[in-house]
Amino acid sequence: METIPFNKPFLCGKEFAYIEDAVVNKLKISGNGEYSQWCQKFFEERFGIHKALLTTSCTDALEMAAILIDIQPGDEVIVPSFTFVSTANAFVLRGARIVFADSCVDFPNIDPVDVARKITKRTRAIVVVHYAGVVCDMHAVQALAEANRLVVIEDAAQAVDSQFDGRYAGSIGDLSAFSFHETKNVIAGEGGLLGINNPKYEARAEIIWEKGTNRSAFSRGELAKYSWIDIGSSFLPSEVTAAFLRAQLERIETIQNRRKEIWNNYYGLLKRLEERGLLALPQIPPLAEQNGHMFFIMMPDPQTRDELKNYMGKRGISAVTHYLPLESSPFAEKHPELIERMMCPNSLHFSQCLMRLPLFFALTQKEIETIVDTIESFYDS
Ligand SMILES: *Cc1c(COP(=O)(O)O)cnc(C)c1O
What we know:
By secondary structure, the protein is an alpha/beta fold.
């Protein structure tokens, strides 16, 4: 039986040549070398991010963000219920109390109306996640943040090259975080990036990034020696990671075009099933321009979703569900002092009825047709 995996990492071709160059020619394989700086400049220039710092993961970039905004025990941070654990964990590590906000009714992204309801005197920050590379309603989020003097952090792990009303994901909030994990559009195995748009965080970010020292300024020749001046950790990836990433970023247009083409093909072929009322296709809000990161379908009820998933699995097609609402996690149950456990019904609905279809660069038109035919045969059987 031919099988179709959910994801296959895509190699652009120059990854190994660049790694060899970093190791053999540049003789600089620790962090913050030429390849890292090339990648950072790419994010600053192409996406309009004020200052970019490569990190070892998106999780690390979020942890840097929590340190940078100086979260103190008891501060409240509003986080979507429907997201990956790192979005919340980064702030829990600093002692924050997490208040989960629900998804919109028609899309998994955070609902600004629910965010507004959850702001208190102790709220410090709103963290948004651009689910499936579809940017949240940043007009509404920024307006709430301004009115209540809150920091906005974008978890743009899935949203490289996505846009909202003409601006790139990761360039809008005070801070933002990207991921180059092998399941994202642009990859480096593990890797991430912190975007700093509010210049007031720029100087301290470099220090936290370099283990709490001012080594970055020292490397630029601004200081005679470097010393310990703040808290920090080892957030820089090596040049090996950055060299791999550069090869990917140079081909970003090719990657995005193919992924969006696959996304559109799915949409076109599944439309007739939606018209028969069998499933619902993603509804992309008008101001958001998505990046082909993910294709998901919404099934009418949890049981049908699970049956279809098993039906496809038996036919060699790996379709997968996604997040469980974080307020229902074992960690949240054990730590009522850290987690506000108000239920989020829309998040639960996406958790129970959403299913993601295989989407990767090398997925062929024939495989897309096989996947759609299999979904159709499920209903006809
Ligand atoms: C992938 C992902 C992360 C984690 O990224 P890492 O680079 O693996 O740390 C965080 N948030 C979201 C929304 C993600 O999709």
